Write a sequence for this structure.
């Protein structure tokens, strides 16, 4: 049996008006994500910016974790919390709000090779309530509903179960090659995907 795969999703938004969005984005992408990777138990990290300005959180960092050792207080404390790029001596925890959620991967469906992802990639997410622990049945529904191909250019569909809130699952899909889709249409495309996922699984949805 393979080792469990964990994912940490960290949403964030600035609350200090003296810090520019671009400075925060550059710090997060160029410094903070690599710093988290240096903990040793995080094997991959990706950073995303919300397309819609109406999202409660503007940024999302997604980390693939081999274990949860980096969450131990002594390891978490070693991750730098300040940087000159932010233009302040305050900790990032003081200048921004963070909403972190831990999940354990239940299954993943792939479309082609898991590699070669360009910068034009999009992450679609949908959280939903599920009282059943029958992951094989969930996977069967995703396959039969052809959720992986709901959007052209999709690379993988992953369903993860939470480590804390026991009945709120997370569905996520990487999509790329959407260069012909206008940005104002991307929000509607994501909403359509979420609705299709919820309808296919027959589950009440709650969005992340």
């Amino acid at each position: 049996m393979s080792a469990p795969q964990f994912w940490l999703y960290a949403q964030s938004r600035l609350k200090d008006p003296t810090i520019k969005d671009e400075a925060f984005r550059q710090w997060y992408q160029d410094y903070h994500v690599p710093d988290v990777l240096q903990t040793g138990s995080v094997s991959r990290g990706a950073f995303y910016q919300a397309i819609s300005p109406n999202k409660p959180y503007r940024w999302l960092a997604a980390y693939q974790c081999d274990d949860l050792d980096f969450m131990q207080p002594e390891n978490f404390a070693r991750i730098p919390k300040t940087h000159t790029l932010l233009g302040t001596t305050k900790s990032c925890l003081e200048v921004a709000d963070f909403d972190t959620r831990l999940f354990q991967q239940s299954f993943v469906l792939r479309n082609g090779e898991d590699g070669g992802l360009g910068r034009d990639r999009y992450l679609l997410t949908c959280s939903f309530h599920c009282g059943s622990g029958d992951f094989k049945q969930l996977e069967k529904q995703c396959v039969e509903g052809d959720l992986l191909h709901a959007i052209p250019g999709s690379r993988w569909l992953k369903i993860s179960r939470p480590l804390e809130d026991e009945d709120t699952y997370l569905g996520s899909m990487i999509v790329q090659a959407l260069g012909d889709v206008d940005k104002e249409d991307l929000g509607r495309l994501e909403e359509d995907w979420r609705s299709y996922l919820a309808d296919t699984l027959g589950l009440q949805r709650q969005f992340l």
Observations:
- The first strand starts at residue 6 and ends at 14.
- The mean pLDDT is 82.
